[in-house]
Specification:
single chain; alpha+beta; BirA Bifunctional Protein, domain 2; six-stranded mixed beta sheet; 18 helices; about 30% helix; RNA-binding
RNA sequence: GCGCGGGUAGUCUAGUGGUAGGACAACGCCCUUCCGAGGCGUUAGCCCGGGUUCAAAUCCCGGCCCGCGCACCA
């Protein structure tokens, strides 16, 4: 096990879930410190992507009904067909194997694969025959209610809940684009073989923002602040660019300004959270790599001991999701966009003649009339009635030119989705923060978390583990807790040992109650990164700490230096 | 899911068929202290299940977990 993983387990950041029963791959427990860190990350995310956008956060069930995932496409495209060799036991994804061996695409259904295997006598590379193909769905299935129940799935992404509630959300925003809707929560994917510890989990934490925009207005007023920001991009042809975002959009490397805006914002967020800038890049999905719904997609990738891993996906999902739910549910998912001035439009329309239609189509006449109104005017019109094509005789309708006043148009909004994998980001922060250096000739382990991210922000330590040092230290601990600082009290072991303990878990500041405290009501304040110390009055502690914890200022600005 | 290698206190590790040992950590007491001091003591372990054997941490089989390679990662 790596040095960092050993520390994370020992100190209470991460644990294997179900450990006492032997554990199972793909699940982790967040210990007290890991949970604290991830909570800080979530709140920082809200600050960036909800509070400072025209956006809100909602919370939907983690169990979804089958209809949702049929409409979203997950029920089909999330299902792979697997084929297993009966000789050597190798398992392949059927579509990949067929494409590689036979060179064509196939339907992802068990029947189609079964047929191909038979028709081409497709064998494993070892020469063995394949067993009967089996479907493998990456979604966890469940049952809602007793008995046969209703089929449900654990959500594979938080996004769908937002699309489903779109009508309500659009009302909430008074039908005015653009607006964003966020959701932070758990999602589930039944991975075939999760590995690499926290990198591929079966239950994981996502923070997603669905930013709904007019299809022709993929811009953001905030982009002006980022136009000259330089980021590291790897485009879909694997070409690297260190380029200003404004130029990247102009050159067509990034599809639109809105994606570029979220790339910038994501970069800012990740760096504020503690990701190492030199280990961060944005990589564009290749044409054959994009999900079924996306028209452009950029991943934020960070370099870790597992290599470059994807931590954020920024996708332009177009109108895919809303259109699909509109189609499958019948609910109107459009937004009415008024024109500045109403426009007069002349157009030709089809007007049904009920006198003729009635006798001809009898009961179906009304339906025919309705279909007719939707048709493009023409001398020959064919309508589809209950799946049957019927030509409507020319004398049954008139074509007239009418003048209409149009006040606006209905559009299905497009959505840009920045989607964050909180578990991976949390882990990457830990790896990027983990460091060793030498203090007074001895090596120390230190977790250089950003001050505002640390799960324990301040440790209060009595120099001696007896009265009156202990009482005074406890008193200070309680005062700091009252102003919302995550503070711990610790009197166990020598003072040096305790400093190292808090260095290792990334606590930025230690306060020590010493002999002088009882002479002049001051304590020492120690900085984790430099190990320098100042003397400071107890009464100004909370103000100074709040200031320090929200900045990267040097403690030496705040008091007399006690140790360099 | 396949193949190879592993799994001994919280962590690291010794132990190849015959009483499971150490280091560090943690906890208690003593010492009293500004960068992992010292002394004494305590807690704590053979991944799970089956088999072979008089006897299994050790050998065999299955499972689970970890690592690596392959496959998978919409």
């Amino acid at each position: 096990m790596s040095e960092i993983m050993e520390m994370l387990i020992r100190r209470g950041f991460l644990w294997q879930s179900f450990e006492i029963y032997g554990g199972i791959a793909g699940f982790i427990d967040y210990g007290p410190l890991g949970n604290g860190l991830r909570r800080r990350l979530e709140n920082l995310w809200r600050e960036f992507f909800v509070v400072n956008e025209r956006a809100v956060e909602i919370d939907c069930p983690t169990i979804g009904i089958e209809e949702v995932y049929v409409a979203s496409g997950h029920a089909t495209s999330f299902t792979d067909v697997a084929i297993e060799c009966s000789e050597c036991g190798k398992v392949y994804r059927a579509d990949h194997y067929v494409k590689e061996k036979l060179g064509f695409e196939i339907d992802e259904s068990v029947e189609a694969v079964r047929e191909i295997l038979k028709e081409f006598d497709l064998r494993c590379e070892c020469g063995g025959k394949f067993k009967d193909p089996e479907p493998f769905n990456l979604m966890f299935e469940t049952k809602i209610g007793p008995g046969r129940g209703k089929k449900g799935y654990l959500r594979p992404e938080t996004a769908q809940g937002i699309f489903i509630a779109f009508r309500r959300l659009s009302d909430y925003f008074r039908d005015k684009l653009p607006f964003g809707v966020a959701q932070v929560g758990r999602s589930y994917r039944n991975e075939i073989s999760p590995r690499q510890g926290v990198i591929r989990l079966r239950e994981f934490n996502q923070a997603e923002l669905e930013y709904f925009v007019h299809p022709e207005k993929k811009t953001h007023p905030g982009f002006e602040n980022y136009r000259e920001k330089v980021v590291k991009l790897v485009d879909k042809r694997d070409v690297e660019h260190e380029i200003e975002l404004g130029k990247a959009v102009k050159k067509g490397i990034i599809l639109n300004e809105l994606i570029a805006y979220f790339i910038a914002k994501t970069e800012e967020f990740l760096i504020k959270a503690g990701i190492d800038r030199s280990k961060l890049r944005f990589r564009q999905h290749k044409d054959d790599e994009r999900a079924h719904y996306a028209c452009d997609c950029w991943d934020a990738e960070v370099l870790t001991s597992y290599g470059w891993i994807e931590v954020v996906g920024i996708a332009d999902r177009g109108c895919y999701d809303l259109s699909r739910h509109m189609e499958y549910s019948g609910e109107d998912m459009t937004v009415f966009i008024p024109y500045k001035e109403p426009v007069k439009v002349k157009k030709k329309v089809v007007i049904p003649d009920m006198k003729k239609l009635g006798p001809l189509f009898k009961k179906k006449a009304k339906k025919v009339a309705e279909e007719l109104k939707k048709m493009v005017p023409s001398e020959k019109i064919v309508v589809v009635l209950d799946g049957e094509e019927v030509e409507v005789p020319r004398e049954c309708y008139r074509i007239e030119e009418v003048e209409e006043i149009v006040h606006g148009e209905k559009v299905v909004p497009h959505v840009i989705e920045p989607s964050f994998g909180l578990d991976r980001i949390t882990y990457a922060i830990l790896e990027h923060s983990f460091d060793t250096d030498v203090v007074d000739g001895e090596e120390r382990k230190v977790l250089r978390l950003k001050r505002w991210m640390a799960p324990v922000q301040v440790a209060v330590l009595p120099l001696l583990s007896r009265e009156p040092f202990t009482s005074k230290a406890l008193e200070i601990t309680n005062e700091l807790k009252k102003v919302g600082i995550f503070t711990e009290y610790d009197d166990s072991g020598s003072i040096g040992r305790r400093y190292r303990r808090y260095d290792e878990i990334g606590t930025p500041f230690c306060i020590t109650v010493d002999h002088q405290t009882f002479e002049d009501e001051t304590v020492t304040l120690r900085d984790r990164d430099t190990t320098s110390q100042i003397r400071i009055a107890i009464k100004s502690l909370s103000d100074v700490l709040v200031n320090l914890l929200n900045s990267e200022r040097d403690i030496r600005e705040f008091g007399e230096v006690f140790r360099e």
